[in-house]
Design brief:
about 400 residues; alpha/beta; Rossmann fold; six-stranded mixed sheet; four-stranded parallel sheet; 13 strands; about 15% strand
Length: about 400
């Protein structure tokens, strides 16, 4: 059963029906809206603890109507790990990492793509296409394979090696494009009429947000229905940050939060690709395309996000900020943090640590604040960035 009532345009509130294929409104994303009064009557907060520890435990707040259409690879709740040594290195007493690298296909992209593919199956879509800066392509390919759907993946030619090959491993037809993720998206748009594929680009359909918002639902549950003081989130397309802010709205409306204090949201980018940071600092609601985007953190190399205003709205409403990490500091922090805590941190998360170190030093984050950093992918997916081979044993 679905409690979805309608879809709503994020740009102007236009209401659209949810019982048919929808993409965007005037080129901008859609929200999925629920009958939260009915959800409150159907399930109590304490009921969740008796359910399986997967993202599907929040079934009443998810958009798939028929359980038969759920496409799953066993996406469990990702652990929330205290990190005292890393915290000490950053000057923090209460630092946590929510480790999304343990999800299927090794990244947080499993959340959004399991939901988008499930809903595509329910709507009768048979052929999917996605532009990807890295992990989304592999996740889409895996879930499409699981659903028996046809998948096409378009990647920049310099995407990390594992990302380039995993889509093919899962049976997708993968293509390398000379350019950025925006060039991959353009290739999909050019082929749409001939190929009749459905575009699963970030925020070009409404359901990836619903999968990603489960990060916020889980985090609230894992913190005993309170929220941290600050969240640091690697931001390319920004679906996860947008989704979490939506999750907090829904939890507050349901009356499930012990405190309604919201965390300050920090959208973290690289100095090599920082369109959201540029717009934030200029007090703009929409971001201009970032010229000559280049960063070793491939998931952050998104020069223009279709949900830019949604990211910036959430950041500002929270009292947070959009901040850029010095590109040169990303890989050293990736190695240092992984060694301190034994967590396989990706470079996108390392960018968050660069930003966090600066904000703590400036006094903008209190050393006793409860801070959560999201590790959005496994370090092993970035073999080019791992340390060199050890020396031979003599």
């Amino acid at each position: 059963m679905s409690y979805v009532t309608h879809l709503e345009a994020a740009i102007d509130g236009t209401v659209l029906p949810a019982d048919r294929i929808q993409t965007t409104h005037e080129g901008r994303p859609l929200w999925v809206r629920y009958d939260l009064d009915a959800v409150r009557d159907a399930v109590a907060r304490d009921d969740l603890a008796r359910r399986a520890p997967t993202l599907w435990r929040y079934r009443e707040l998810l958009p798939v109507a028929d359980d038969a259409n759920i496409v799953t690879l066993g996406e469990g709740m990702s652990p929330l790990l205290p990190c005292p040594r890393l915290g000490a290195a950053l000057g923090l007493n209460r630092l946590f990492i929510k480790d999304e690298s343990q999800l299927p296909t090794g990244s947080f992209k499993a959340r959004g793509l399991c939901m988008a593919v499930s809903k595509a199956k329910e709507l009768g879509i048979r052929r999917l296409a996605i532009p990807t800066a890295g992990n989304a392509g592999g996740a889409m390919a895996a879930y499409a394979s699981r659903a028996g759907l046809e998948a096409y993946v378009f990647l920049p030619a310099d995407t990390p090696l594992v990302n380039r090959r995993e889509a093919t491993l899962y049976g997708a037809k993968a293509f390398l494009v000379d350019g950025l993720i925006t060039d991959c998206a353009a290739a999909i748009a050019r082929g749409a009429a001939k190929m009749d594929w459905f575009d699963l680009s970030t925020l070009k359909e409404p359901y990836r947000i619903e999968g990603k918002k489960t990060m916020g639902l889980e985090l609230a549950e894992q913190m005993d229905w309170t929220l941290p003081d600050a969240i640091f989130y690697p931001t390319g397309g920004g679906t996860g940050l947008i989704g979490m802010w939506k999750a907090f709205d829904e939890l507050e409306a349901l009356g499930w939060l012990e405190r309604t204090d919201r965390p300050r949201m920090f959208a973290c980018q690289s100095s090599g690709c920082a369109p959201i940071v540029t717009a934030f600092e200029a007090n703009e609601r929409f971001a201009e395309p970032f010229e000559n985007a280049a960063t070793i953190a491939s998931g952050l190399r998104v020069p223009k996000a279709v949900g830019d205003f949604m990211i910036l709205d959430a950041v500002r409403a929270s009292g947070g900020a959009a901040c850029a990490a010095n590109e040169a500091e990303i890989v050293p922090w990736m190695h240092r943090a992984s060694a301190l805590e034994g967590i396989a941190l990706c470079p996108e998360t390392a960018a968050c640590l660069v930003v966090l170190e600066t904000l703590v030093a400036e006094g903008r984050i209190d050393r006793d604040a409860r801070v959560v950093v999201f590790n959005t992918g496994a370090a092993q997916k970035y073999v080019e960035l791992l340390p060199p081979d050890p020396p031979p044993y003599a």
